[in-house]
Amino acid sequence: xxxxxxxxxxxxxxxxxxxxxxxxxxxxxxxxxxxxxxxxxxxxxxxxxxxxxxxxxxxxxxxxxxxxxxxxxxxxxxxxxxxxxxxxxxxxxxxxxxxxxxxxxxxxxxxxxxxxxxxxxxxxxxxxxxxxxxxxxxxxxxxxxxxxxxxxxxxxxxxxxxxxxxxxxxxxxxxxxxxxxxxxxxxxxxxxxxxxxxxxxxxxxxxxxxxxxxxxxxxxxxxxxxxxxxxxxxxxxxxxxxxxxxxxxxxxxxxxxxxxxxxxxxxxxxxxxxxxxxxxxxxxxxxxxxxxxxxxxxxxxxxxxxxxxxxxxxxxxx
Length: 318
Hints:
Blueprint: H1 2-20, H2 38-41, E1 52-60, E2 70-79, E3 85-96, E4 99-114, E5 119-134, E6 156-169, E7 173-179, E8 200-207, E9 209-210, E10 215-226, E11 232-241, E12 245-252, E13 256-265, E14 274-283, H3 286-289, E15 294-303
């Protein structure tokens, strides 16, 4: 009883702070579809697969443009033997021109169960660090000469990260709210080139409509709210065929179309083990005329958790 009360007390205090404090969060990576990457911006998502989930993703944005963004993300999460508790970790590397960013984050979630485990409310926290390195030698002006600005004053910098989130889900739906960074801007020294947090909230939702044993439909939506930039909405609709193939289409504000597909292979009957996905973004408008689109490659494994009293395969595809 003490341990359970202890968990409740910590999480309640954290979420009161989350709801009542004006906070800022770092600019996080853009993905072709957020529901493949909910762990990245919501620590409460960890453990929701009810298996050990290992994932790697590589994104190439605006192919054909010099210095275009590239992102690599590796993540893993799993419930523990006490399946009220789940742990996760993720690492990311962003490259945009001369700027490189590396981050590593550890995550913890505590899951409350309702109606005989039919519904779960997960409350999560995360902490880690982000390091940025600006390579001044790559800053070249239009005339081909090095940039006259001395980059040594802000070539390297890092900051601590602390975030939280909530995730409520059942067999065929989910609603999530995540804040990747809760540390206020006032904690960071104000100096030239300093990496400072920016406010960013994520609200997500998904519903899986099981039409029959062959076809399922999965609409999803993610709202990304930022302090100094326009709010971004992404909506997707995916068809799941024979529990093996996913084909989907979507859109993102900012005039972007999304096309996606995924193959899921089961090594053991009734257990998803290998997922391979690909997506393509196409910008509509001026940006679309100067690049060849954005590509994203996704690979993940679902592995039964050792020492679990029972093996449970989540019927959800998000």
